[in-house]
Amino acid sequence: MAKQKQPKNELWEWVKALLIAVALAGILRYFFFAPIIVDGSSMMPTLKNGDRMIVNKLGTPKRFDIVVFHAPEGKDYIKRVIGLPGDRIEYKNDVLYINGKAYKEPYLDKYKKAVADGPLTEDFTLKDIIGRDTVPKGQIFVMGDNRRYSKDSRQIGTIPLSKVVGETNFVYWPLKDAHVVNH
């Protein structure tokens, strides 16, 4: 006599599916992607207070990427990578020089045009800021796009790569402002 198959418990199947979905979402969020809310105006005009973004935790930061990192105060900051390990950084007459080469920063054009009382970014050299000529190995130099109102590497020093959460370049909320952030 053949054994009859028992009907599957439908509730248990739904619970298993839900547990698997929650576990996968947790793994994705912990290891690969995470949401973040921009808090403050330090990245204006590129990012606004309250913008919601996705942080990509994969890869290594590149120059001009926008990254999220654990700041010394125990908060997460969002800033732009200006200097990579080994780079010499200097600002002179509102122009960024990396390893002696001038770089355009088109994401600052809007603010530079609006400033009437001096440069957007004050002159400095990396040596003035951290007492070294180059960004240390395993660290990056970051700055907010709202240069006059940003607490960044000019105040807190270089950021260890181990403190970087990831790169972010996609604003998904508010929906009317959703866009990919260009360098």
Output the radius of gyration.
22 Å
> How many DSSP H or I helices?
4
Average predicted local confidence, pLDDT: 84
- What's the story with the biggest beta sheet? 8 strands, antiparallel
The helix/strand series, from N terminus to C terminus, equals: HEEEEEEEHEHEHEEE
What's the CATH class label? Mainly Beta
Structural class: alpha+beta
Shape: elongated
Strand percent estimate: 25-35%
What is the fold named in CATH at topology level? Answer: Umud Fragment, subunit A
Q: Provide the CATH architecture.
A: Ribbon
Number of DSSP strand runs = 12
Q: Any low-confidence stretches, pLDDT <50, length ≥5?
A: none
Q: What is the CA-CA span between the terminal residues?
A: 72 Å
Instruction: Summarize the amount of helix as a percent range.
Output: 10-25%
Name given to the CATH homologous superfamily: Umud Fragment, subunit A
Organism: Weizmannia acidilactici
Family: Belongs to the peptidase S26 family.
Transmembrane segments: 17-38
Keywords: Hydrolase, Membrane, Protease, Transmembrane, Transmembrane helix
Molecular structure report:
With 183 residues, the protein is α+β, with helices and mostly antiparallel strands. It has one domain: Umud Fragment, subunit A (Ribbon). 20% of the residues lie in helices and 30% in strands. The strands form two sheets. Strands 1, 2, 3, 4, 9, 10, 11 and 12 form an eight-stranded antiparallel β-sheet that branches. It has a four-stranded antiparallel β-sheet with strand order 7-6-5-8. A hairpin with a 2-residue loop joins strand 5 (89-92) and strand 6 (95-98). The radius of gyration is 22 Å and the shape is elongated. The relative contact order is 0.20.
